[in-house]
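Long-time lurker, first post. I've been practising inverse folding by hand and with some scripts of my own, and I keep getting stuck on stretches where the structure tokens seem ambiguous. Below is the full token string for one chain I'm working on. Before anyone asks, I'm not after the true native sequence, just a reasonable design that respects the backbone. If someone could post their per-position residues I'd love to compare against what I wrote down in my notebook.
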């Protein structure tokens, strides 16, 4: 994994906390992109359904 020469246990703890935060932020960013994609797909589909209802009733 990581090989670091830590001077204290606090330094080691801080290092791993920062790495964990980086990983969680990466996961969050990835999920936000996926949510944006799904939301856009839902919006387009809802618009198509609305458009199709208007065309059918005309």
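-- Answer (accepted) --
I ran through it position by position. Result:
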């Amino acid at each position: 994994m990581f090989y670091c020469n830590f001077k204290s246990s606090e330094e080691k703890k801080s290092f791993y906390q920062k790495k964990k935060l980086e990983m969680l932020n990466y996961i969050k960013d990835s999920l936000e992109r996926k949510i944006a994609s799904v939301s856009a797909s839902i919006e387009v589909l809802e618009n198509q359904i609305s458009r199709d209802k208007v065309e059918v009733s005309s």
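A couple of notes from the structure itself: Residues 6 and 27 are 27 Å apart (CA to CA). The mean pLDDT is 92. Happy to go over any region you disagree with.
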